[in-house]
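Annex B.
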Amino acid sequence: MPQRLSIGATVFLVLTVLVGLYFAYAAVQGPSGILRRIQIQAETEDLREARDLLQADVTRMQNLTRRLSDDYLDLDLLDERAREVLGLLRADEILLR
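Septum formation initiator family protein: predicted structure tokens.
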């Protein structure tokens, strides 16, 4: 006949299994768990992409600002901006809509 565990051993075994399950759950679902780490990595990648787009915009704006500065004036860019912002045309141009 198989030997049965005493009540103390049974309680210890059940508590050990419960503690193990708690730590396994915390390792997966907890604030420092695997799923949170995956979520943070995805957010980090999204933020890096947004940062790169903003950096490209800043670089473009710095270039345009430099080209319209007193030290370096790009007449083609100035002409383009005057046409776009002020709606100016040359006397020899025809506007088609």
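The chain has three helices and no strands. The CA atoms of residues 11 and 74 lie 84 Å apart. Further annotation is deferred to the next reporting cycle.
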